[in-house]
Structure formats: structure tokens, C-alpha cells
Sequence to fold (398 residues):
Amino acid sequence: MTTALKIVIIGAGYGGLVTAIKLQRHLKNNEAEVTLVNKHDYHYITTHLHMPAAGTDHHENARVKISELINEEKINFIKSTVVQIKPEQKEVVLEDRVLSYDYLVAGLGSETETFGIPGLEEHAMTIRSINSVRLIHQHIKYMFAKYKVNPSRTDYLTFVVGGAGFTGTEFVGELADRIPVLCEDFGVDPSIVKIYNVEAAPHALPPGLPGDLVEYGMDVLRRKGVIYKLSSPIKQCTDEGVMLADGEFIKAGTVIWSGGIRGNRLLEQSGFETIRGRVKVDPYLRSLQYRNVFVTGDCAVVFDPDGRPFPANAQIAVQQACNVARNLVYITRNEPLEPFVYDYKGTVASLGKGEAVGLLKTIKIKGRIAALMKKVIDARYLFVIGGLPLVIRKTSIR
Ligand SMILES: Cc1cc2nc3c(=O)[nH]c(=O)nc-3n(C[C@H](O)[C@H](O)[C@H](O)COP(=O)(O)OP(=O)(O)OC[C@H]3O[C@@H](n4cnc5c(N)ncnc54)[C@H](O)[C@@H]3O)c2cc1C
Fold:
């Protein structure tokens, strides 16, 4: 009698969850025993987090119970935190038990990269999880309340967002939309509120967008009140604000850092070869050192034909997950593996309510049509993980 292959997936983000869902669909009974481990009992939709962070949407719209997305008769779900991977022993150490595997899928996502900038870790908040955005949302309201009891402290209503890539841009767009509502609620003159978006590069918005779209996006956000500080990296962050490279100090009650990510530290701590925490993989997304360990999403570094790493994003994480799931099915059936090929579909960045900018493959889109496209992209992902009922439940029309 042959025993079923043991597949363990760690992390139920875009990479891990989609791998599990695809395996659940395509593996036949007894072909493999699949276990999914995640530190929360919910999956969070990171591409949505800028909204609950700013308070323009409820955080419940950015998460879904994992038990609603998988069939627990086919996938064994364990809510626990991974503390170590022992690839030589083919074991994963959780906070409360040890799991052994034949094949591992690592999808633990990323961590904030502060590039060693003093004070950022201690004094800046990050848009990374449901809990971190709930903190930001409450903190913003708290700053308005603090200002009301001490109106000489206008710096309480200064918000600094470090990093003007995807996360920073989408967040300042939402924050700019939220400020008038908060001003009305707290009885504050809107001219007192300042939103700075600080960026080391000479332009804002996600890399890869053509110059005219970048200009369009920045104009939209400037009209909403965002003040750009470009080519001015943050040199230091304190409990009073940020010091920029040009010597300017911005006194601020809120600093949010969205200036960089690195792969989850657990992988390098477990002995995997990494570049900025992201595991080097072969064309089938397997670790170069351990061919029974597949790596997906932000944890993996994959290069384009010119040798440049693809950006870490949800689109690539989902495509990798589909490829990993297919290859695991092939392994159970002794069939040849398929290499991963990235199919770039485009990039759309939200600029707040009814405004966005981006590319669909090579076609430029902006304004309302881009905002609608952003909704379609979000809805498509919800459809992949939870079908039409999830799309209907979680999609908000704004
Ligand atoms: C605010 C924001 C906006 C974004 N917007 C976009 C966008 O518009 N378009 C786009 O393409 N990309 C966007 N991204 C990037 C995209 O979200 C990520 O690239 C994507 O989530 C990567 O998927 P992943 O599976 O690697 O990791 P994640 O989706 O981060 O999942 C990792 C999972 O692992 C779990 N985990 C972590 N450590 C442990 C542990 N030790 N034990 C157990 N479980 C653990 C986490 O809880 C999480 O469930 C955005 C990111 C952010 C933060």
C-alpha cells in the first residue's frame, strides 16, 4: 500500500491560499494529504488594506474566514504560527506542534524593510495586516481628538507617509478622501490638516508606469491636498516627526512607513539562500537548495528575461500559486513539471474615490474607467477564492 504524499502549505495569503484552493479542486481523493497553516483563522486581502487604514471602508471587508474558503474535509487547516522550518528534516515547527512533510509550500509573505533608518521601527506605523490598519484608523481619529483639546498643536494633524509606491499612493488617496469627513465630524478647519507623501525617488506612484500617467496621478493627489516631498529620503524618525535628507524636519503626529518590503525573515533564519529575505528559486519555483520546497509570492524572488527581479505583487503571487498547485498534482501523478512563466496583465493604482491610474498590458487607463477596472481586478480575485457569493458580499460600489 502506498501512503499519500504529505503537502504542507505555510501562510494563507495570496500564494498559500490559492495553492490550497487549487489543490483542493484538482487532487483526487487520497492522492495527497494537504495541510494549510496560517497565524490567523482569516485570509486578508492586502490590496484592500489602505481603505480600512484610512477609515474609508470597514476592515471586515478586507478579510474572509479561511473556513469559508476551503473544504476542511479535503484541506486540514491549522491556525498556528510557524516558528521554524527544518528543511533537512522535512519538518515545520509551529508554536504548538511539529509537522512533517514530503513537499512544503512556503507562502509567508513579506515584512517591512526599514533600510536601517533610525527610529522608523519604533515610531512609524505600517499598512501590513488587519491589526496594523485598525491601529492606524484609531490613531488618526485619536489625533483629531487630541488636537481638539490642544488646538495649539497643529502638528497633531500632520500626517507623513513615507514611500510613494503602490501602498503609499493608495493610502494617501484614501486619507485625502477621509480628511473632510473627519474635519466635519470633529469641527476642524481642513486647512490645518497636512498630508505629506515623502519619497526617495524623483517621482511618485508604482514603478513601471509611463511618465504621463505618473504626472496625472500626482496631479490628482495634489488637487486632493497631498504635498509631495520627492528625492528627499527620510533620514530619521522620532516620536515628533521625520527628518529629511535635505535637513527639513516635518513635525507630525502620525508617520506611516510604506517605503519597502523584504521577504519573511523566517526563511533566511531557517537556512534558505535569499536576496533581501526572498528565496532564490528554480524555474519551477522550488528552492535551489531543497527541491521539495516550493516558494510563492513575496517570499520568492523571480527574475525577468533581462535579469531584473519581478516586483512583489498579488498578481504574480496568484499566478505562482496556480503553477505550484499544478506541479504538485503532476508530482503525485509522476508527470513532468511545468516551468513558471509570468503573464503580466497590467497595474492599476487607486487614487481614492472614483480615481485611479494604470496600465492594462500596454494600454494606458486613468480616471473613472481606471477606478472601475481596479474594482474589476479586486472582484476577480474574490471570485477566484470564493466564487460569486464572496464577490457580492465584499464588493463595495463607491
Ligand atoms: C496596502 C497594500 C496594498 C497593496 N496593493 C497591491 C495592489 O494593488 N496590487 C498588487 O498586485 N499587489 C499589491 N500589494 C502587494 C500584495 O498584497 C502582495 O504582493 C501579496 O499579498 C503577496 O502574497 P503572499 O502570499 O506572498 O503574502 P501575503 O498575502 O502577505 O500572505 C502571507 C500570509 O502568511 C501568514 N504568515 C506570515 N507569517 C506567518 C507565520 N510565521 N506563521 C503562520 N502564518 C504566517 C500571514 O498571516 C498571511 O496570511 C499590496 C500590499 C499592501 C500591503
The chain has two domains: 5-39+80-112+261-344, 120-257. The first strand starts at residue 5 and ends at 10. The CA atoms of residues 90 and 101 lie 6 Å apart.
